[in-house]
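Researcher: Checking consistency across runs. Here is Multiple inositol polyphosphate phosphatase 1 again:
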Amino acid sequence: MAATIVTARSISGYSMNMRRKAKTQRCYSKTYRSRSLLFLLSFYAILSVCLSLKSKHFSGKTPYSWVNLVDVEDEVKEDEWYNMENLQGMACNAVHASAVIRHGARFPGLEDVNHLIDIHHRLVNAMEPDVNPGLYEWKNKFPSNNDKALHHLGEEEQEGLGYRIGKRLHTLFVDEDISDFRFIVSSMQRTKESASAFYEGFTRAMHTEDDIDDEFDSEVNDELMRFFALCAKYVYSVDQNKTAYKEYHDFLEGPDIKKVTTKIYEKLGIKEDVLKPVDIRLLFLACGYETAAFKSSPWCSVLDDDDVEVLDYLGDIRHSIKNGYTHNITWLQSCPLLSEIFFGFDETIMEIENTEDDEEVGGFTVGQFAFGHAETIGPLHAILGLFNDSTPIRADNRIHQNNRLFRASKISPFSANVVFVLYECVPEEFKDDEEVETADYYLQMFINEKPHLIPGCKEMHCPYTQVRERYSHYIDRCDFKNLCKKSPLKDEL
């Protein structure tokens, strides 16, 4: 199925300083109209929030660059991942790379947009216009036809990611034909557009603009990228089962969210029956969505950094249930994707090992890039054993989880990625000997472009056979049909 590259950038903005200045002036000019001391004090409170909301953690709705230090293109080191130089006595070159990538930053869903409009209508009826003019005069900027569509920031995230991966593995990719790469997407348009933007940056890292083909083939495969929608046991026992979300609802109705809600009532001068807990979560997400798309949001003015920390934790409880470790079926269902990744490594090794001395090695995929969702990459993290806290996050232990490993804003933001690189290693003295008969194979893993220890390994580089053996049960005995067979609810959780 062909996918066309998306290059348009739908929204542009001022420089950071100009945006900050404009935002400050808006806060000032609109609040200045108030003549009462109460409203003057409200002005300073709003101005302070406009300038001091530092937290950029919006759980799974966090843009990639907010939590990951992204290298400037000119500073990306060519072939940074191609040679594995820290394996003593061995010369190692990359022979295959496999990446699983979440789609880029997107617009909110239509249901959330309509809900936000309803919240705003209730607030306007309950608050005085001059208490928070920016919020009072808020207008919805999310068209109905942008329902969960990739937006300009998501395109930029993916194009930049493609460029950096292409540059870091330049020698592995540069001379390969497009047929030596595999691009896998889900049936959702945002993954297709993410793949297109990624491809644009990827090819730009290796070719001049005249050499870039504007179209490429991508494979729609929901069995690999949207297994969570096809696994009846998961859908029945977790995704659509309110009981499975008990910890989430306990926290949503608990004292932490109530405290945030009370603070919002005080800031806006409204009665304590205007907003429900679920409304608080949505205005928090609106703050993140609008800041990502438009650089600022009046919804942020009712929150402070402590509020964001609480609401980020609420999101992490939800992600732990929906995409993480809370229920076994959530991560076990990702075994087809894990199998596909390792079968690609197996095929690469087999092709290299079975090539005759007088033949040119070829015919296998050198790069596999799969584009999915938070519900794709979260279960992959879990089946690999990544970000598994010794004490699960619960509704009653937030204060003890400040250093938790499972923080969705950091591990699975928009454009989150897991990249495996397979290396062929030979003794240093034989690195230029084309007739060397044996080689060892090592694996390295990168999470959001940073080296990450593979569970069970002592070094960042790990023998491939050791890693494969660790996950062999999920790779070789993945029976998705039986695993996902719907059974009585009491047996599910």
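Researcher: Does this match what you'd expect to see?
Model: One thing to look at in this run: The chain has two domains: 13-52, 54-105+149-227+304-491.
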